[in-house]
Design a protein that fits this description.
By secondary structure, this protein is an alpha+beta fold. An 8-stranded mixed β-sheet has the order 5-4-7-2-1-10-13-12. Helix 3 (about 275-295) crosses helix 4 (about 310-325), helix 14 (about 570-590) packs antiparallel against helix 15 (about 595-610) and helix 21 (about 700-710) crosses helix 22 (about 715-725). The chain binds zinc ion. Zinc ion (ZN) binds near residues 258, 312 and 315.
């Protein structure tokens, strides 16, 4: 299917404006197909030709102003329309296919009880898989929706739903919205409703998660209410879309989707087992993020996809800020330093990096590729810098004006910059050029007693930084000094001192590669565990991990620092982030001394498991980090058989990782996995079982998993991801080596099996990440030189190739 280009979108928006959609869906026609009828009223400003977007399996009829259109003219999801100036009405009726990849109208059957669940995901260009429409963000219209569904289903959607007769539902007319927000959620959902500040709230999940949703309802509603209060105060505009539903749906690709008044979330956020606190704060942040979008994204929407970053960066920044300020979860900036910034910093140093703004998306599909650590994490860090640069009053005044001026319409970055200028911002164009329109991070390093700023050699830029220099003396006393870095050399208020730490950006306020002076590096091993602020510890580890990846900090030093940090780290987020990095990157990819480093890091984590409060989230985080590093099958088995470390409860989400590790070690059988699935007969259990079976170190298991990854279009997106996640392991080299070549030969054809997001995600997850020999690099570079890879695949492969090059460089240096 051709992807809509910016030029096509501009031409269509110049020609017509859309008034309304009347949509009728019939979900009672079996498990493969649903019937969709769209009636669209619109106006053409001149005579001209354009097209309607619709991707049916069978187009049944189409009429323009009551005249039949030639159905044979439908090509590549486009039905031509020849218009005269004036009012028009187009009607299309079609049979559409339910999807299993999380895009379009996704249908799933819960293996726990055979109940059926459906949700619509129209983002980014999937709306025509559900309804006939003019699918671009700047053709907003109102929607009236009717749904016919099995009589025992409930239906919710982008406006309040009324059941007018058994199985017949009607949604109220919406405000003007972009096509990519249209949604319904239907099926045997379990629902809980409340009210906050006269806003009706609903939360929804599958019946098999009902008791877990009930248990978490207070927390979810509390975060929602606290965030509404915060946003009403920050934005000065009340929530504009009526009721507010949050549906936790099966097999969702993203974290969540901000459909106005009917947000969809991945249902792992309904916790069916004990989780570390960091998991709860993650869910809270996603809730807060989607709520920010109700104003910034839904009320005011980008004109074209190249400003998508703005909405994601903004929602990300607001989520961290509001979660920390207004909810009970105060570890958000710890997570930002340890997880999100690390993700973004990697992205900003790959060949595929791009400016935060102006990614220049030529078409909708290419916009999707830039939906990455730069648009989210770097964008949020840059907005945090902008807030420091402008001051909060000017920052918020500009945002409020922007939301007021463009409510229910579309806007661009230039419009927002104008709003900030009108609110009193100075020199904003130069600031935006440095921070938003150029790529790559500056390096800020303490050298010869001053702070040196060095922009990336391949992308010179002049960026001001406002940051805090933290001095931690040998006695443990901490002092802060605010530094305005406006030139390449900035004097410091203190000299580095033996035994003490000087930590630039110690409060994690800017976006840069931070490098420490020699005295600080020498003092770190003895001091790192005693740094009291968890955000400062996160900032230090961000710098250290970056220095390891640049082959500046020896692996042995990094392992030593990890082993001094982990037994004392008090934040479960930090323990998870550092242990994941140690297992997959430091040991899995960078290290030639796998077993020695693995033993040392696992000993450090085992100490944390023993010393953490029994039953705490911290202990759980440490054990989850420890499991993939353990080779001791007897110990792991004893945990499954009822003797876990003191305080831990072996519930489903802890049993499965243990079984996965046993599978990887080859000491359990397919039958053992089947027995665990019998014990946990749930949708989540089924996916865990797929992952475990792919991990078994047997030729037949790998062959079966590989056939699923590259050849089976009927698998759900979650099944494919689980196959990929279970497939590659550093200690299964002999078995897996043939698949390195096969990856490059066979992955291109998966573009025909699945849709955009899933293709790219599969290519990324299935990449032979632990196969570091230079032969992998040769094969990868060869495939990138060829023509077989489409845009999503190409970006995934190119990024993994950058990681591979980095691993080879680190290995060569160690
Ligand atoms: Zn978002």
């Amino acid at each position: 299917m051709p992807s809509l280009t910016v030029d096509e979108a501009r031409a269509r928006a110049d020609l017509l404006s859309v008034d309304s959609y009347d949509i009728q869906l019939d979900l009672t026609r079996g498990d493969k197909v649903f019937r969709s009828r769209s009636q669209i009223t619109f106006r053409a400003d001149a005579d001209g030709e354009t097209f309607l977007d619709v991707r049916p399996i069978d187009l049944l009829n189409a009429q323009l102003d009551d005249v039949d259109l030639d159905l044979g003219e439908l090509r590549d999801g486009r039905l031509p329309l020849r218009l005269t100036a004036g009012e028009h009405r187009v009607v299309v009726e079609a049979d559409m296919a339910y999807s299993h990849d999380g895009e379009g109208l996704h249908r799933s059957v819960d293996p726990a009880d055979d109940r059926v669940y459906v949700y619509a995901m129209a983002f980014l260009d999937a709306a025509p898989r559900i309804i006939g429409c003019f699918d671009q963000p700047d053709l907003k219209a109102v929607y009236r929706t009717e749904v016919t569904a099995p009589t025992d289903w409930t239906v919710i959607g982008i406006a309040r739903a009324h059941q007018e007769a058994p199985g017949r539902w009607r949604l109220d007319e919406t405000q003007p919205l972009s096509t990519y927000f249209w949604t319904i959620v239907a099926g045997h959902y379990h629902s809980i409703t409340r009210e906050h500040d006269v806003i009706r709230l609903g939360i929804h999940a599958t019946q098999s998660l009902a008791k877990h949703l009930d248990a978490d309802a207070d927390e979810i509603f509390r975060v929602t209410g606290q965030s509404f209060d915060a946003y009403h105060q920050l934005f000065g505009i009340r929530y504009p879309f009526g009721d507010y539903h949050q549906a936790f749906v099966p097999e969702f690709n993203a974290g969540a989707m901000e459909n106005p008044g009917c947000v969809t979330f991945r249902d792992e956020m309904v916790f069916r087992s004990r989780v570390p606190t960091g998991q709860r704060s993650w869910r809270a942040r996603v809730i807060v993020h989607e709520m920010a979008h109700q104003w910034f994204g839904d009320l005011v929407t980008m004109r074209w996809w190249d400003d998508l970053w703005l909405y994601e960066s903004f929602a990300e920044y607001m989520a961290y800020r509001v979660c920390d300020d207004a909810t009970d979860f105060t570890d958000s900036w710890v997570e930002f330093a340890h997880v999100r910034k690390h993700w973004g910093m990697l992205a900003d140093q790959r060949a595929s990096t791009h400016p935060v703004a102006g990614n220049g998306a030529r078409d909708a599909e290419s916009a999707l590729a830039d939906f990455d650590g730069i648009s989210y994490a770097k964008g949020a860090a840059v907005l945090k810098q902008l807030n420091a640069y402008l001051g909060d009053d000017v920052f918020l005044a500009g945002v409020r004006q922007h939301l007021t001026d463009h409510a229910y319409g579309n806007a661009t970055l230039a419009d927002l910059l104008d709003a900030w200028k009108a609110a009193g911002a100075h020199d904003l164009d130069a600031w935006a050029d440095g921070w938003l329109r150029s790529s790559g991070p500056d390096t800020l390093a303490i050298v010869d007693g001053v702070l040196r700023r060095t922009p990336p050699a391949w992308r010179p830029a002049s960026r001001p930084h406002r940051l805090t220099l933290c001095r931690i003396t040998e006695g443990g006393r901490a002092e802060d000094a605010v530094l305005d870095v406006t030139s390449d050399v900035t004097p410091l208020p203190w000299r580095p001192a033996a035994g003490g730490l000087l930590v630039p950006d110690g409060r994690d306020q800017t976006w840069a590669k931070i490098r420490y002076d020699a005295d600080t590096l020498a003092a770190l091993p003895d001091r790192i565990a005693a740094v009291s602020d968890p955000v400062t510890r996160g900032a230090i580890w961000l710098s250290l991990r970056d220095a390891v990846a640049d082959a500046e900090l020896p692996l042995s030093t990094a392992v030593d620092l990890l082993c001094r940090t982990l037994p004392h780290e008090t934040e479960d987020i930090a323990v998870r982030a550092l242990s994941n990095w140690a297992g997959t990157v430091l040991i899995g990819q960078f290290s030639n001394q796998t077993s020695d480093y693995r033993t040392r890091v696992s000993d450090a984590l085992a100490t944390r498991v023993e010393t953490a409060p029994a039953g705490s989230g911290l202990q759980l985080a440490a054990v989850l980090g420890l499991i993939p590093l353990l080779d001791d099958a007897d110990l792991l088995r004893s945990w499954l058989e009822g003797s876990p470390p003191h305080g831990l409860v072996m519930d489903a989400e802890l049993r499965w990782p243990v079984l996965a590790q046993l599978a990887r070690l080859g000491v359990v059988t397919d039958d053992d996995i089947g027995a665990e699935l019998y014990r946990d007969h749930s949708a989540q259990g089924a996916i865990h079982a797929v992952r475990c079976r792919a991990a078994l170190p047997h030729e037949e298991s790998k062959a079966r998993a590989w056939r699923g990854i590259v050849g089976d279009g009927s698998l759900s997106n979650y099944e494919v991801y689980a196959l990929c996640e279970g497939f590659w392991w550093p200690d299964q080299d002999t078995l897996l080596t043939p698949y390195v070549e096969r990856y490059f030969d066979e992955m291109p054809s998966t573009a025909a099996l699945r849709s955009g997001v899933v293709v790219a995600q599969t290519a990324s997850l299935a990449f032979p990440k632990y196969a570091v020999p230079s032969r992998t690099l040769e094969l990868a570079e060869h495939s990138l030189r060829g023509e077989a890879l489409g845009p999503g695949l190409r970006r995934s492969v190119a990024d993994r190739v950058d990681d591979l090059r980095q691993a080879l460089t680190v290995r060569a240096a160690s």
